[in-house]
Each structure stands twice: as C-alpha cells, then as structure tokens.
Amino acid sequence: MTTRSFAVLGYSGLVGSHLAKMLAGDPRYARGTLVGRRATGALGAPHVSEVLVDFDHPEGARRHLAADDVYCCLGTTIKKAGSQAAFHKVDCDIPVAMGREARAAGATQFLIVTAVGADPSSRVFYSRVKGEAEAGLAALDFPAGLKVFRPSLIVGERSERRPAESIAMALMSATRPLFAGGLARYRAIDAEEVARAMHRAAFSATAPGVHVYEGQSLFALA
Ligand SMILES: NC(=O)c1ccc[n+]([C@@H]2O[C@H](COP(=O)([O-])OP(=O)(O)OC[C@H]3O[C@@H](n4cnc5c(N)ncnc54)[C@H](OP(=O)(O)O)[C@@H]3O)[C@@H](O)[C@H]2O)c1
What CATH topology corresponds to 5-221? Predict the structure, then answer.
C-alpha cells in the first residue's frame, strides 16, 4: 500500500492546474494537498484537499507542506504584480519561504518551474529573480533533490488576457520546428507538457543536489 504524498503550490495557475489533476489521478499517491490563497473548488478526489494559507505568514503553511513531493508553480508577471518588488516577492521570496517550510516539515524533494535563462547573476531582472529563487531553494538541501524546470514560453488556454503573450504564442507555435539542437531551450511548450515533465521527474531516480530540466531534457520528459 502506498503512503506517498504530494503538495502543490500554484495549483490555480495554468501549469499548476494540469499538474494537480495529473497527481490527483495517480494511484501511487495516497494523499495530496493543494496549498493556495483562494478556493477553486474540489478536484473530485477524496484523498486530495485544498487548504488556504496566508503567504505573508509562511510558517502557517508548514503543516500543509508535510508531503514527500512538493511542487511549486507559483508566479506572476511584473505587470500583474505592479512593481519589480512585488514580482520578486511572488517569484522568489514566497517560493523560497515555502521551500523552507516544506524542508522543515520533512519534504524529501521540491520541484519548481522557473524559466529559461534563470541565473542569479543575470543582468536581466526576470532571469535574475528566477535564478535567485533556484539558489535560495538549492541551499535548503532537499534529501531527494531540488528539481528545476526551465521552460521558455508556456502555451495554453488562460482565462485572463495577456495580449503580448498571445502574439508570442502564435509566433512561437508556428516557428516551433526551427528551435532544434541548442535552440530547443527557447521552444514554446504546452503547460500540460511542463506538468507532465514535473510529474515524471518526481518518480525518476532521485539524488541530493540540483537537477535542471530545460530544452531537450525537458521535452524528453514531457
Ligand atoms: N507563462 C509563461 O509563458 C512562462 C514562461 C516561463 C516560465 N513561467 C513560469 O512558470 C510558472 C507557472 O506559470 P503559469 O503560467 O502556470 O502561472 P499562472 O497561470 O500565472 O499561475 C500562477 C500561480 O501563482 C499564484 N499566485 C500569483 N500571485 C500570487 C500571490 N501574490 N500569492 C500567492 N499566490 C500567487 C496564482 O494564484 P491565483 O490563482 O490565486 O492568482 C497561480 O496559482 C511561473 O513561475 C512562471 O513565472 C511562465
């Protein structure tokens, strides 16, 4: 009988909603928790619960992150957040704080979506924030590792309108075959594929340290 458990942060988002559905339907998991800030309704799976937390008080989330596999799909845009500082909070400070709580609660691995180009010393603000999040989480030393997924543009149906993203999506979908070899890391990817890669990676051989999936290694798992 399985006792394995999961927790998902960012389950109301594009990638997170696909992921939550996949994990809820995986019989290898006995229990799951969706940790968020607003109720979205039940998934229809009795072993999966939705809990609301105050992300300004991370310690309140600790007991809900007491799971083997903690997945994080949290994120925003600078436009939506309203400032660089607010963006930094959602895309770096909150994920690292959740990682800290998950580690304290006994999580064995942490899996997070960041972005292609993530680098704490990047001159590009967005890439630097994503890189800082990865570095902050890497320092927590999860026993079965930190798994980092670095997609380029994520394609999928959104309820909210993001016009610039829609144009980029159409362009990148049309030119997808051109992104071969070393350019694969810049190829657009479906939200569902990102979720599938995360799900599969959770069950692949695990080891301490940081495991990065981008370009070919991301598409191979998806
Ligand atoms: N979209 C892309 O093309 C793209 C490309 C590369 C990397 N990424 C990264 O991939 C990840 C997932 O992207 P996505 O498009 O699936 O994201 P998304 O649809 O925008 O979902 C973001 C999630 O974060 C939560 N969130 C946002 N602001 C929050 C706050 N202040 N406090 C707590 N939770 C908050 C949202 O909750 P609510 O529903 O409550 O708002 C939602 O669950 C993100 O880290 C993103 O930066 C995205």
Answer: Rossmann fold (3.40.50)
Distance 9 CA to ligand 1 centre (A): 10
Confidence grade of residue 8 (pLDDT, cut at 50, 70, 90): very high
Q: What is the mean pLDDT of residues 93-105?
A: 98
Q: How far is CA 108 from CA 44, 99, 123, 144, in A?
A: 27, 11, 33, 5
- For residue 176, what are the CA distances in angstroms to 15, 197, 220? 20, 19, 15
For residue 16 and ligand 1, the question of a CB distance below 6 A is answered with yes
pTM of the model: 0.94
Angle CA(188)–CA(110)–CA(173) in degrees, nearest 5?
5
Beta bridge partners of 51: 35
Quick check: CB of 55 below 6 Å from ligand 1?
yes
- Asked if residue 74 has pLDDT above 90, the reply is yes
